[in-house]
Design a protein that fits this description.
Elements lengths: L2 H6 L1 H10 L3 H15 L6 E4 L6 H10 L3 H10 L5 H12 L1 H11 L3 H19 L5 H7 L5 H8 L9 H13 L3 H16 L2 E4 L10 H9 L4 E4 L2 H11 L2 H13 L3 H8 L4 H11 L22 H25 L14 E2 L4 E4 L2 E4 L18 H16 L1 H13 E2 L1 E4 L2 E4 L14 E3 L2 E3 L1 H17 L4 H16 L13 H6 L13 H4 L3 H10 L8 E4 L13 E2 L4 E3 L9 H4 L4 E6 L2 E7 L5 H7 L5 E8 L10 H21 L7
Parallel strand pairs: 1-2, 2-3, 3-7, 9-12, 12-14
Antiparallel strand pairs: 1-15, 4-5, 5-6, 8-9, 10-11, 13-14, 15-16, 16-17
């Protein structure tokens, strides 16, 4: 490092000197950062395709995909019975519920507290060992910060302090603070055991708990999300796209999940119910009935009423989508406009020169001369729904969270994360996609789409740009060249109205076949600036059918598909209840989960999700912070501080 280089950076170094005004300050910070660089890499937790399954999500988050159980096994080994270890894990997962149960059933509560306090402190001590004292100190609850810090750094080899530590435990019990202290320790364990959380798309749709999942994520210490197609649909709806509002409502009704709308986000569905009665009251709407496995206790409304609402909003959606397609011929989606192909008198539709009878022939709100025009009543209904979506305080809070922590793709620690695909040609080259008259492909395409998604919500001054972006949000949901969909068409209309399986087929883009080849994955990794020799792609989107012998490991381990079917709707398809991925200092571990029974069973019986771990990659040398993206950032900070030291010592900048 030359003095001239320092002189060139002098303006920046003067700003840095405001934070570190002396040689001693700068040198101390360098020492601190170097120490952090030599700590073990923090644990990353990857989940995908949660689809509203909040109970399973919360449990996987609390047990860290089995990490806590393995820590308990490592710490206590044969010194505790399996039942005791189960009880301890259950307590760590759900401390408030477990402590209430213990208070009702335990005869000698003080002894139980004394034993349990030692055990949870021991677990906290182990999981905190990979962090600096400073970082742990910042995470401690105010009420117990000093006590917890003392207990975490207890040295068994110091006999002089044994009475001191025992006295702390006794004081906690004698002052009736055991319950609060145990809860605080368990929450600290939750915070420490997972350093960062990655959601590889699709929080929304199917299950009833998406809004609860979002509440958790918005308060989580460190998370990111790579938007999935279902997330984009909800984001577009919350931003005001009418077609996506209709789509979100339709899917929620289809899966008997209106409580997410009504209770979760205060979306008023009464106008839709009234509209459905007025126009579809005598229509049996047989093709719009929900399936048997979906009709459960979550639904307060009758399934007959739901079927009428389902059909009403579906027809509105097809009209609104037809309007978007007409506005954007560049989408090349004219084949998706089918309502003008219907012979409303004969009850048939002609597609590709072939005429098909319609299963459902009743269209009371469709004008055959202008089938994509909303009736005044439909327009009024959509105006009301638009107001509900754009003015829902909780939904808008979650939308801002998705934007703040989300992106279309992410590169982190040699992993490339995106939900579904990168559009490719059949020869494996990156497909060129036109957006606003300009061709984009590969990484530049993903970056451009990310920018358009943000315009849909944040653009205020250019109404034309905002409207374009809002329409493009719909294209991302179902467009042929959308990296979130990437099929030739979405055959929703055909599945409702035509009894012909051939018309239901949706041809996947070239990516979905080519991405199983190592060469293709290497090409994609290079495109995103990663070294194929030590990097991998992590996807969700397409459920892995383990019952058919499919593996989440593809392309010789270059690509991991971690959509194992969190949603109950997919359990019969995948044969399991989800995959998660753990990336710690020792390597990469894939965890396969069976279905989660209930929180109540976990608390009462100490049951856990049955999971099976598969080692994907083992590091012969434990990864340190210096080996991560964070380490590279710290190294840059150290370099800047070293230049500041040179400036101080050569009189270029004066110490303050």
């Amino acid at each position: 490092m030359t003095i001239q280089e320092v002189k060139d950076d002098q303006r920046y170094l003067k700003l840095l000197a405001e934070k570190f005004p002396t040689i001693a300050d700068a040198a101390t910070e360098i020492i601190n950062l170097e120490a952090i660089m030599n700590l073990p890499k923090g644990t990353e937790h990857f989940l995908s395709d949660l689809h509203g399954e909040n109970n399973a999500f919360q449990h996987v988050l609390k047990n860290a995909s089995g990490v806590i159980r393995r820590k308990v096994d490592d710490i206590f080994g044969m010194n505790l019975r399996e039942s005791d270890k189960n009880e301890l894990c259950s307590l760590i997962y759900y401390p408030e519920d477990k402590l209430r149960l213990i208070a009702e059933t335990e005869s000698n509560l003080d002894d139980w507290y004394r034993i349990t306090l030692h055990r949870v402190v021991e677990v906290a001590r182990v999981v905190s060992s990979k962090y600096t004292r400073s970082k742990v100190r910042k995470l401690l609850p105010k009420d117990f910060s000093y006590i917890i810090e003392e207990l975490l750094h207890e040295q068994q080899s110091e006999p002089n302090k044994q009475e001191y530590y025992a006295g702390i435990i006794n004081s906690i019990i004698n002052t009736n603070r055991s319950t609060e202290f145990i809860i605080a320790i368990c929450q600290l364990i939750h915070r420490l055991v997972i350093d960062s959380l990655h959601i590889v798309g699709d929080v929304y749709d199917r299950g009833p708990g998406a809004c609860s999942i979002m509440d958790t994520l918005c308060g989580y210490h460190d998370f990111d999300i790579q938007w999935g197609n279902h997330d984009i649909s909800w984001m577009g709806a919350a931003a005001g796209n009418l077609a996506l509002i209709a789509n979100v409502v339709r899917i929620s009704i289809r899966y008997m999940n209106v409580e997410t709308l009504e209770e979760g986000y205060s979306i008023n569905l009464l106008p839709l119910a009234t509209f459905a009665i007025d126009f579809y009251g005598k229509d049996p709407c047989r093709e719009f009935q929900v399936k048997e496995y979906e009709a459960d206790s979550r639904m307060a409304h009758s399934t007959t009423m739901m079927a009428k609402m389902h059909k009403a909003i579906s027809i509105i959606q097809f009209k609104l989508e037809g309007q978007i397609v007409k506005r954007h011929p560049e989408y090349n989606m004219d084949d998706r406009n089918l309502m003008h192909l219907i012979d409303y008198k004969a009850g048939t539709i002609t597609i590709g020169g072939k005429t098909y009878p319609l299963i459902d022939k009743l269209f009371p709100t469709v004008d055959p001369q202008d089938p994509y025009k909303l009736t005044p009543e439909e327009q009024r209904l959509m105006d009301q729904l638009h107001h509900s979506f754009t003015c829902s305080e909780r939904l808008q809070k979650h939308l801002r969270c998705l934007y703040r922590h989300g992106s279309l793709f992410l590169t982190r620690n040699n992993n490339l994360l995106y939900h579904a695909s990168v559009p490719l040609n059949a020869d494996g080259t990156f497909k060129k996609v036109v957006i606003e008259g300009v061709e984009y492909s590969g990484k530049k395409l993903m970056e451009k789409i990310d920018s358009v998604v943000r315009d849909a919500y944040f653009e205020k001054s250019n109404i034309s740009a905002k409207n374009y972006a809002l329409d493009y949000m719909w294209y991302l949901w179902c467009g042929p060249d959308s990296p979130l969909y990437n099929k030739d068409k979405m055959t929703t209309f055909e599945r409702y109205f035509i009894d012909d399986q051939e018309l239901y087929k949706e041809q996947k883009g070239a990516y979905y076949e080519l991405c199983n080849q190592e060469e293709t994955c290497n090409t994609i990794l290079k495109e995103f600036g990663l070294d194929p020799n030590n990097s991998r792609i992590i996807n969700g989107h397409i459920p892995v059918r383990t019952t058919n012998g499919e593996s989440p490991l593809r392309a010789n381990g270059k690509r991991l598909v971690i959509d194992g079917g969190f949603s109950k709707a997919y359990h019969s398809t995948t044969g399991i209840a989800g995959y998660t991925l753990i990336y710690n200092s020792h390597g990469l571990q894939l965890v396969q989960h069976e279905a989660f029974e209930s929180k109540e069973k976990a608390v009462l019986d100490g049951t856990d999700i049955h999971s099976r771990m598969q080692l994907v990659e083992f590091k012969t040398h434990r990864m340190l912070v210096r080996d991560t993206d964070r380490g590279r950032e710290l190294a840059e900070q150290i370099g800047n501080l070293q230049r500041l030291l040179v400036a101080y010592r050569n009189g270029l900048i004066k110490e303050n």
